[in-house]
Amino acid sequence: MRFQRNLQRWLASREPSADQQRLIERHLLRPGDAPRIGILLPARAEDATALADTLESLEQSHYSPTVHLLAGPGLAIPASPLAIRVIPWDGADPLPALNVAAASSEDEWLMVARAGDRFTPSGLQLVAVELTQAPDCRAVFADEFHRGGEGFVGAAFRPGFNLDLLLSFPGAHARHWLFRRDLLTGLGGFDADYGEAAELDVILRLVEQGGLVGLGHVDEVLLNTEAPRLVDSPAERRAIQRHLDARGYQADVLSERPGRYRIDYHHGDTPLVSVLVVADKPLAALRQCVESVLEKTEYPCFELLLVDPGEAADGTREADRDEWLGGIAGLGSDQVRVVAAGEGPSFSAAVNQGAREARGDYLVLLTGDGIVLHGHWLQQLVNHAQRPEVGIVGGKVLTSDGRVQQAGLVLGLNGPVGRPFVGEPLETPGYMQRLEVDQDYSAVSTSCLVIRRSLFDQLGGLDTALTDERRDADLCLRARDAGFLTVWTPYCVVVTEAGLRQESPDDWSDETRERMEREGALMYQRWLPLLASDPAYNRNLSLLGSGFDFDHGRDRSWDPLPIAGLPRVLAYPADHFGCGHYRVIQPLKALQAEGLAQGRISDRYHTIVELERFQPDVLLLQRQIGDENIKGIAEAGEFSRAFKVFELDDYLPNLPLKSVHRATMPKDIVKSLRRALALSDRLVVSTEALAESFSDLHPMIRVVHNTLPVPWWGHLQSQRGVGPRPRVGWGGGASHTGDLELIFDVVRDLADRVDWVFFGMCPPKLRPYVKEYHEGVSIEAYPAKLASLNLDLALAPLEQNLFNECKSNLRLLEYGACAYPVVCSDVRCFRGDLPVTRVKNRFKEWMDAIQAHLADPEASARQGLALREAVYRDWMLAGENLQRWRRGWLPD
């Protein structure tokens, strides 16, 4: 149930806000420009309830398609505001009627739905947005929620178009595609010979017609539908068989598991395969590896090359292993040879040397402690490797206790590249059965893979500057750039003694950390766009953890709209209280509401890969002064083009002695600020005094004054004269002990004449004289709460110190929005043209000013109204003030 609630909350977060909806309608889906989408919907009389569910969901959609309703005999056509085109249908095979509807439709895109499918409110709209950006798209599919017999909802977050996954598991990947109508009708429509697999057949004919180009995927949930049944489908097998025949293969479509297919391509020839084993493992493991290959391999044409690196992977030499390798070399066998790779080379150099000595047309890289389980292991690799479009094929690697050690690699997972499914039991099907079926991956492991020899040579072999998964992914991505697929098959299984544990960065030695950072930087420089958008993965799945986990994190709202000229801001507020809202969250929300920017608020630093996904134009960094913060800024600067704006609202080097925040500030705060600002492109501060104080820390400083968010402060109601005695008080945060103690004598001496009201904090020494004390509330509730105090006079005392000199006039603005008359300290931050009473921090001046207001309540109230007028006119977060924020954040 919790998972279902997370799904529903996540889906609600994907729905465009009112502001985003306006942007979509203004920039992306203007009338006349939006793609016309039609839903082909067959329904019989018994489907009336399910049909009503589908139509209801479409009525709630932000995008209204044309519904081509194939109405079976006796079906009552429901009343609906949708554009419904009724096509009579005899209730038998729907495919001929679907073709009639498609041929006569004026829509650009058509998809087949089933009665009972429920479209998400934003799914069709977001697909339409993507289609406006992809003029060459021929067909497109999206993600789904699946419901089972018990009503359970699961998320089917599908990868980009994946030919081998489609052929292996069409039930989960061939439904609910949108086809370009002209291409669909040009193919002759849906072929009735393929029945329930007619959509699969159309997809495969598009592949035959134009390859893999123009077959798109949108990482958004389009609808909620019944989960695919795991049953064999003769129609699916016929469609796959026809496709393979059309491509010239004499292939068999086999099924060991219902609804999941394995293709034997029957290539007809058996090219020589060179199995390369780097002999860097202990002797016992090497012997088992070699014996398993020689004893179990059924493939008739292979050679085994043991590449001697001169030392083990841990840098040691083993005399028994050296003797054993020498004995094999002395046999003079043509099938089993020992190749010297030189003294202590890297794994990559050893493999490259072995490849130069190999005679085969294909090279298999096999870990030195790998034990092959089945005789057909090599045949399963070569089965795919001989396909002309395939460059690399990887197998499944298990630990000795039958758990997954390697099952493909996911780009961007826990860094540049990671291993999914680690530790899963052998029998586990994996997310969407992905541990059970052949599929295309972006990368696989050199623990067990085959690559065409000519391609290996063309690519220049393994990169010796990289190790482990980074080395493996680099090879596969270079093969991808050369135009080849990388396939992973679960039917080739190797067992290794390697453990499951993936070492935490906390456990790295300094040498390991330096190597990992160096290799990571190299991977990001080469492959960052791909690492951020692995076509074999899905953007809705987490890049942290074990992979293929649903990511419903609160700061991963849906991606920005592809609107040219609309800047993207990624903001890291220092808090979600006062300054975090006033200086970051509320200005960003206001800019979004006015269509001046897009943005995201984050509570944590994003990985380099996540930054590339979001592609911000601006990184907004508020008070990011910790060591980890500074490290994150440095990484972002190296790999992101974003303009980095550092934001400060206070003079941190000199907090007041009695401030509750003083203890939490780093002792070397100036040094931390210098480090952070050296990595930033601009410093934005709230006052001219702050700009002057920080002038030696950064060459580019902008002042953007605090202003009040209109939704919070623009319509407050407050009353005067509601108590038996004048209500005089203060409201604010918890860091003003010293400021409030300034007026202790005033509070004490006036306690018998006024009702003292304090909100947010009250120093203990003042409490005996206070009539009302109100605890602090959330920042969202703060404006209304402040107004509800109904003060006749508000006070704003501040100590005379550099910290307060650099503060803003925010307290006066808040009081003014409540129409409170104000007496405040005459310090720099409160000076200006706002109509308030300013006093020196002397007892007599405070007493005289307060008593003057009490003596003429009408004049005092007029001053409060004048202050509100000034605040509304000059100090609200709108108009030119909002433009100042935009200019302050964006590069010139």
Automatic annotation (TrEMBL):
Molecular functions (GO terms): transferase activity
Keywords: Cell inner membrane, Cell membrane, Membrane, Transferase
Tagged with keyword Phosphoprotein: no
A Pfam family hit: Glycos_transf_2
InterPro entries for this protein: Glyco_trans_2-like, Glycosyltransf_2, Nucleotide-diphossugar_trans
Domain Glycosyltransferase 2-like: 283-459
Entry's Gene Ontology BP terms: single-species biofilm formation
Coiled coil (residue ranges): none
Protein's recorded name: Glycosyltransferase
Species this protein is from: Pseudomonas mangiferae
Lineage: Bacteria, Pseudomonadati, Pseudomonadota, Gammaproteobacteria, Pseudomonadales
